[in-house]
């Protein structure tokens, strides 16, 4: 049985390439799997699940699921599937249909996250710096909602 592959949308392929640290570039991620996993979690954070229109067949081509497993990202794939379906049976490794559903959920969240990244990184020269700003703002947004004294209620 063939090992499943994680697909990347053709319209996001250039962004994925630019986010990877390769020859002559300074991308913030080491591998395509790192980019896709980050994008999937970002897509889940914003509940942005976007179906594919066209799949990239060239660089980056679909990535073997084994790459994600070797980097321990299989847990992210499973957790996103559980969160989406609210069904623990989605992590079954015995049924190829369930595995395909789990991978589709991950791919669509990654596609949504890549859309969000594309919007956030538009015009940026240094992706690493912009990603740090995005992560910092997320961190401070969550912290600021905890029992902050809100003066607006006195207006």
Strand content: under 5%
In sequence order, what are the helices and strands, one letter per element? EHHEHHHH
Secondary structural class: mainly alpha
Ends distance = 65 Å
State the helix count: 6
Q: How many domains, in number, for the residues? A: 1
Mean pLDDT, to the nearest integer, reads: 85
Residue share in helix: 40-55%
What is the alpha-carbon Rg in Å?
A: 17 Å
Sheet with most strands: strand arrangement: 1-2
Low-pLDDT stretches: none
Main sheet?
A: 2 strands, antiparallel
How would you sum up the global shape? globular
Strand segment count: 2
Topology:
Blueprint: E1 5-6, H1 13-19, H2 32-45, E2 63-64, H3 65-70, H4 74-85, H5 96-121, H6 127-144
Antiparallel strand pairs: 1-2
Helix pairs in contact: 2-5, 4-5
Give a verbal description of the structure:
A two-stranded antiparallel sheet has the order 1-2. With 155 residues, it is mostly helical. The protein has one domain (5-121). The model has no long low-confidence stretch (mean pLDDT 85). α2 crosses α5 and α4 packs across α5 (96-121). The protein is built from 6 helices and 2 strands.
Brief summary of the model shown:
With 155 residues, this protein is mainly α. The chain has one domain. Helices cover 54% and strands 3% of the residues.
